[in-house]
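Quick one: structure tokens for this chain, please?
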Amino acid sequence: MSAVLDTAPPPLARPRPAALLAGTRQSPLALAQTRLVLEALAAAGGAEPALAVPLGTTGDREARRLADLGGKGLFAKEIHEALLDRRIDFAVHSLKDLETELPPGIAIAAVLPRADARDALVLAPSCPPEEHRLPLPFLPVGARIGTASARRAAQLRALRPDLRFGLLRGNVQTRLARLEQGDFAAAPLALAGLDRLRLRHRASLVLEPEVMLPAAGQGIVAITARAGDHATRLRLAAIDDAAARLAMTAERALLTGLEGSCRTPIGAHARLLPGDRLRLDGLVAREDGGFLLRRHIEGAPDEAARMGAALAAELRRLSPGDLLA
């Protein structure tokens, strides 16, 4: 009996879905944060894989202070453009580096759980402790501190008017290298960044919020997407952290109310208290440390935006007229 040949065409292979493209800065920390987002998306499930697309930004290329260049939006300008031009599907940012008012058509689609929001002080190997009764006693009198943050400089100057300051910018590894070279006695850095780069051991001292209030959004990774891209926003919503979004809402509402710039030292830190209460601490100061004002407010979590606006109004009312002009 002759064999019967199966002449039916083979089944068509199902097309593989295109990967979602995640825009990110090129620094080691930005790439580490993007990996966290991609891992969270993979764990949440979904048809499309996601790939990182490193992009250069003006903020990374320039060595001057952001305040002299136009503000923190320079860390995201080119990434926003790539998003609006549809070269990427979403973008990963350190929330504290995002401008308070995003460009039209862009929305924060998700935030990851907040890492440690505190700052840390990293000492240079050559920084010897001295025996005196000043705050931060391990810093020698007149020690030179490296930072580009007006907020950090103001709070350290308020504690230690004898300290001197110099501009220190660049990625975390660059800053640590400058300390190794002896350019500075110490540098304040975000503890979350050290943690994500597995460099927490470099933190000589963790600065509690009572000593140094963090920047608004510090420790939170934010993911932006096109406001009208509902499919991508729905996918990203699966990894949105409610507690981090609550803190973001309160802290960014405070920033909006103060209309602060990179030149104005501003701190903000929201956290949940026992009994389902939300506490928001806020700070405004002069960079020379000659004026520093802290206040806080408590309320229900669903009042986060109102609390941020109310605390901003109080800080503005109690500050010198020229500080937030």
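The CA atoms of residues 111 and 222 lie 4 Å apart.
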